[in-house]
């Protein structure tokens, strides 16, 4: 595997991807024992029902707009890939009209939590997503809504699996769960001997503050391999989530096969080729 790439178009793409990654470093945060966020009164003027989501906005929201389509899409994808499950209590999505209003709300409510572009918060039985309209809103909503849907299924699941799956469900459907920025970043790190796949290391990270951009990328890669690699591994992921929220998944994988790091690296090499084909 090599990052040598003399194609100027690819080099430009890589630069763009790295710039985007720097923005992405803000990432998201998924909070299961959060301080109370209360109800943002300015965001409750309108509610649009989209599948299991109640989308609260200040202005009426187009039911065929980018936000509603993203939420419908992620609900359908999670059901299709992990199996359909009923959502009894609606997941509230507080969609702010701009970054200023969102930051104003966070400043008043988030306490000492780090700033994130979007949030998923669980307060008892209530599940809430907070986000603001931007050029990334569809991805932000898909990512946070995936956390919310996983939380409905399994309560608290391990950080690596939670973030890996959210990253997996984040891209638009037509991108086939690919995250080219993660592919490029992992290949660069691997070529510089700065990274090798290590699920034991990844699964030992408990706190989101310790979860780096590299960890998001590796978590996504494991989930991509497990869900796309074979029907057997996909079923294992689904069964582990049902059984114990996915906590036993690393042990189950160790029993299923050896040489997982090599499998992951082979999968990464294949994804690099796929990404380059799609870019042409
Ligand atoms: Zn996340």
Summed up:
By secondary structure, the protein is α/β, with parallel strands linked by helices. The chain has helices spanning 8-24, 66-82, 99-109, 137-154, 159-169, 180-191, 199-203, 213-228, 231-244, 249-256, 260-279; strands at 28-31, 46-50, 53-57, 91-96, 118-123, 126-132.
Task: Characterise the protein shown here.
This protein has helices at 8-24, 66-82, 99-109, 137-154, 159-169, 180-191, 199-203, 213-228, 231-244, 249-256, 260-279; strands at residues 28-31, 46-50, 53-57, 91-96, 118-123, 126-132. With 280 residues, the protein is α/β, with parallel strands linked by helices. The chain has a 6-stranded mixed β-sheet. Strand 5 and strand 6 form a beta hairpin. The chain is globular, with a radius of gyration of 19 Å. Mean pLDDT is 85; it is low at 1-27 and 32-37. The chain binds zinc ion. Zinc ion (ZN) is lined by residues 28, 30, 143, 147, 163, 166.
């Amino acid at each position: 595997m090599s990052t040598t790439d003399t194609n100027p178009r690819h080099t430009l793409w890589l630069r763009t991807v790295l710039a985007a990654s720097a923005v992405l470093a803000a990432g998201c945060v998924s909070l299961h024992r959060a301080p109370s966020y209360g109800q943002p009164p300015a965001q409750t003027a309108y509610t649009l029902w989209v599948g299991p989501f109640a989308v609260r906005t200040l202005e009426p929201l187009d039911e065929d707009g980018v936000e509603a389509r993203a939420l419908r899409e992620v609900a359908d994808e999670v059901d299709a890939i992990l199996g359909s499950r009923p959502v009894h209590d609606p997941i509230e999505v507080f969609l702010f009209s701009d970054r200023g209003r969102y930051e104003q709300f966070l400043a008043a409510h988030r306490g000492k939590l780090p700033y994130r572009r979007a949030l998923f918060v669980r307060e008892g039985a209530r599940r809430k997503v907070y986000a603001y309209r931007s050029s990334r809103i569809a991805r932000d909503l898909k990512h946070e809504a995936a956390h919310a849907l996983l939380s409905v299924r399994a309560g608290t699941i391990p950080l690596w699996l939670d973030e890996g799956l959210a990253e997996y469900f984040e891209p638009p459907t037509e991108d086939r769960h690919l995250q080219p920025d993660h592919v490029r970043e992992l290949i660069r790190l691997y070529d510089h001997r700065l990274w090798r796949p290590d699920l034991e290391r990844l699964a030992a990270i408990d706190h989101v503050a310790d979860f780096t951009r590299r960890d998001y990328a590796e978590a996504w890669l494991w989930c991509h391999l497990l869900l796309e690699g074979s029907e057997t591994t996909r079923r294992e992921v689904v069964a582990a989530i049902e059984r114990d929220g996915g906590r036993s998944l690393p042990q189950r994988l160790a029993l299923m096969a050896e040489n997982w790091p090599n499998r992951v690296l082979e999968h990464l090499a294949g994804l690099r080729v796929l990404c380059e084909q799609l870019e042409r």
